[in-house]
């Protein structure tokens, strides 16, 4: 379905409604969850500390709780990422967004990168795993290689960015990822997406999920079309 044919409810289900700010308060997370319930977003994405709070806020809804692992640099040891993942799932996380070991990727230590992702996927044991590439630091060949490594160990999604790098998602990278993984993996465009035109362009380019802190603003803009 082309993005311009999406209903408001269909568009809403693309969103991981996000607050990963270091200074996010409990009230901010409660507001995030209330907005997600009101708009029927796919999930909220919060730092691991706030998983129990988000889980409690969303327990009567079908909005999922997503969290981040090895965030935002991806440079923690695989054992730490695995433990963090295991703990997050025990606390109630239903989706895991893990950060690629960017330094290992840039150093062409592909076996390290692959094992790092595998460690999280193995512990997740069926819980959906998205691999955050932080595309702003990678060239096209590195992005493609990171995609194939992620696919090889059965990760579910490729995600563009943490939102804390030099830049966020762009259309060219979404198209490149789509060309690389086809329909075999999901694609999450994340970082700097703040209006509905950009959102629709990302979806048309191949994104199957949108990570955004401006989800409510985007949906409200889209509603004006109807």
Tell me what you see in this structure:
There is one protein chain. The protein has 226 residues and is of the alpha/beta class. It has one domain (3-223): Aldolase class I (TIM Barrel, Alpha-Beta Barrel), CATH 3.20.20. 46% of the residues lie in helices and 16% in strands. The protein has ten helices and eight strands. It has an eight-stranded parallel β-barrel, surrounded by seven helices. The protein is globular and about 50 Å long. The mean pLDDT is 97.
Give the structure's gist in a few sentences:
With 226 residues, this protein is an alpha/beta fold. The protein is 46% helix and 16% strand.
Question: Residue share in helices?
Answer: 40-55%
Q: Remind me, CATH topology?
A: TIM Barrel
Mean pLDDT: 97
- Counting structural domains, the number is 1
Specify the biggest β-sheet: 8 strands, parallel, barrel
Poorly predicted tracts of residues: none
Q: What is the first-to-last residue Cα distance?
A: 18 Å
CATH architecture: Alpha-Beta Barrel
Task: State the total count of DSSP E strands.
Answer: 8
Q: Which radius of gyration do the C-alpha atoms yield?
A: 16 Å
Name the strands of the widest sheet in spatial order.
1-2-3-4-5-6-7-8
Quickly name the level 1 CATH class: Alpha Beta
Structural class: alpha/beta
User: Helix count?
Assistant: 10
Strand content: 15-25%
State the fourth-level CATH superfamily. Answer: Aldolase class I
Q: Helix and strand string, N-terminal first?
A: HEHEHEHEHHEHEHEHEH
The coarse overall form would be globular
């Amino acid at each position: 379905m082309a993005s311009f044919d999406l209903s408001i409810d269909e568009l809403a289900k693309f969103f991981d409604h996000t607050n990963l700010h270091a200074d996010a308060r409990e009230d901010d997370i409660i507001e995030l969850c209330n907005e997600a319930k009101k708009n029927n977003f796919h999930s909220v994405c919060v730092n691991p500390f706030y998983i129990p709070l988000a889980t409690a806020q969303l327990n009567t809804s079908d909005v999922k709780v997503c969290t981040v692992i090895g965030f935002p640099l991806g440079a923690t040891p695989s054992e730490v990422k695995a433990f963090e993942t295991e703990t997050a799932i025990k606390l109630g996380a239903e989706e895991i967004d893990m950060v690629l070991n960017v330094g290992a990727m840039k150093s062409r230590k592909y076996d390290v990168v692959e094992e790092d992702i595998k460690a999280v996927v193995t512990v997740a044991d069926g819980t959906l795993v998205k691999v955050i590439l932080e595309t702003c630091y990678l060239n096209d060949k590195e992005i493609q290689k990171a995609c194939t490594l992620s696919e090889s160990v059965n990760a579910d999604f490729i995600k563009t960015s943490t939102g804390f790098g030099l830049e966020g998602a762009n259309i060219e990278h979404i198209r490149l990822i789509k060309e690389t993984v086809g329909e075999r993996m999901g694609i999450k465009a994340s970082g700097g997406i703040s209006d509905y035109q950009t959102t629709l362009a990302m979806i048309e380019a191949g994104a199957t999920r949108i990570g955004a802190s401006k989800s409510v603003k985007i949906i409200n803009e889209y509603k004006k079309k109807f």
